[in-house]
Amino acid sequence: MPDTESIVGTLAERGWCVAAGFLPEAGVAALRGECLHAHSAGDFHAAGVGRGRSRVRTEVRGDQVLWLEETEAGPALRGVLQELETLRQAVNRSLFLGLLDLETHFAVYPPGAGYQRHLDRFRDDDRRSLTVILYLNPPDWVPEEGGLLRFWPDPENAPLEILPAGGTLVTFLSERFWHEVLPAKRQRLSLTGWFRRR
Ligand code: OGA
Ligand code: MN
Predict the structure, then answer these.
(1) Which of 108, 160, 179, 188 to mutate to test the pocket of ligand 1 (most atoms within 8 A of CB)?
(2) Does residue 181's CB lie within 6 angstroms of at least one atom of ligand 1?
(3) DSSP bridge pairs for 169
């Protein structure tokens, strides 16, 4: 399991990091269960674009989300939030980003849904500083099933394509990196959040 210090070191060096196995498979399965339980209870809603959480444009993004403040966190979620809190403190010590809190949601992409190329920082709210995406998919995901995260380390060059394998944590400076979610042939799950500064 990649430790917090190596993630922080990679972030300091280039502003983004992909950490496979950030969460071990048992933790992923437990968190996936909590996510799917809330999803089947009908607690999710169509994701919005921009601030206000209500501007739904499914041609831009087709996922359904559940914000954490809208749900009661189960034990698996509480454990992961603790890991992310450790990451927040380590990032603040090394990168001086002044991260204050984490705004986060579960995201479920139904088959065929994607999210067009975008940056995570809103024009009218520049508090989102560091994006974290933790995939909750089963371990047997293969590239042919789609759902890859296209990520541009540098906008002039070809993007990377990151497999949304369960347990992988992708983190990057929110204002700097363009990215896109390709449609998948199967349901695609994640916990996605933004560490915000003041
Ligand atoms: C987002 C996003 C990427 C992913 O929610 O803003 O870009 O791989 N998600 O789920
Ligand atoms: Mn994004």
Answers:
(1) 179
(2) yes
(3) 19, 134
For residue 188, with 0-12 CB atoms within 10 Å meaning exposed, 13-18 middle and 19 or more buried, which class applies? buried
Instruction: Please report where in the chains the tokens 């994607």 appear, as a residue.
Output: 114
* Residue from 72, 67, 63, 35 nearest 52 by CA: 67
Q: Are 106 and 66 in contact (CB under 8 A)?
A: yes
- CB of residue 179 inside a 6 A radius of ligand 1: yes
pLDDT score at 135: 98
Contact 117, 180 (CB under 8 A): yes
Which one, of 181, 42, 194, lies nearest residue 133 by Cα? 194
Q: Whats the size of the chain, residue-wise?
A: 198
Among candidates 113, 107, 114, which has minimal Cα distance to 136? 107
Residue to substitute in 115, 121, 148 for testing ligand 1 pocket (most ligand atoms within 8 angstroms of CB): 115
The angle formed by the CA atoms of residues 53, 185 and 2, to the nearest 5 degrees, is 75
Q: Which two tokens stand for residue 177?
A: 């990196």
Ranges of the chain with pLDDT below 70? 1, 50-54, 123-124
189-198 per-position pLDDT tens digit: 999 999 999 8
CATH number of 4-197, picked from 1.20.120.530, 2.60.40.10, 1.20.1250.20, 2.60.120.620: 2.60.120.620
